[in-house]
Please model this.
Amino acid sequence: MTPTDDRWVVISGAGGAVGCEFVTHFAASGRPVLALDRTFAASPQPPSVVARPLDLTDEDQVRAVLADVIPTSASIALLVNAVGLIWNEPTLSFKGAKLVTHALDSWRKVIDANLTAPFVVASQVAARMARRGGGAIVNFSSIASEGNAGQAAYGAAKAGVEGLTRTMAIELGPLGVRVNAVALGFIDVATTRQAVAEERLQNYIQKTPVGRLGRFDDVVNAVEFLATNAFANGTIVKLDGGLRL
Model:
């Protein structure tokens, strides 16, 4: 992708802490951006951005928005598939003297947000890419995919994202669509600080060899690498500063 590239970038989870930063990043270079999420902040969008609220687990809605916003003659260069929901809930926990299991309602909500929605968006965007010469998809996983106490549904969903990424890479590579993922550690954004107590974050920083939380620029660099390296396909880039070494 070049500064004069007029191919579209689609960003799912664009109303979230990471997704909205990607909207700003690509819009700043003049790229046409389709921003997708359930809701958006009231702040105005740059001129090159079309923001559409929708249910990302509904393939009919996603297909309709793509058709409405991006002409069939236009190409989609990149999908930044950043939709997701951090969720902390163990398999078993004590509530008073009672041992309770992970709520099924929250399990379904987390799987929908972190696995079903990325699948729906990726499959619909991939269909458009395949018809126009290909493109790149970057999914978002987490180091929780390797197992993380207190995040049963979230860890399962992110492990699913990595399996989905590899499978789509095999299936779609021959069609010119490359599929990769970034597995994020602790990135210094609002949702991380809402989900993780400050004391725990400081503990993670101490255990991380590079001695800090990740920054948005770190995530951008990883996504840009996966988007532009034509031989990267089915790759999961772990971005955690060495925390899980």
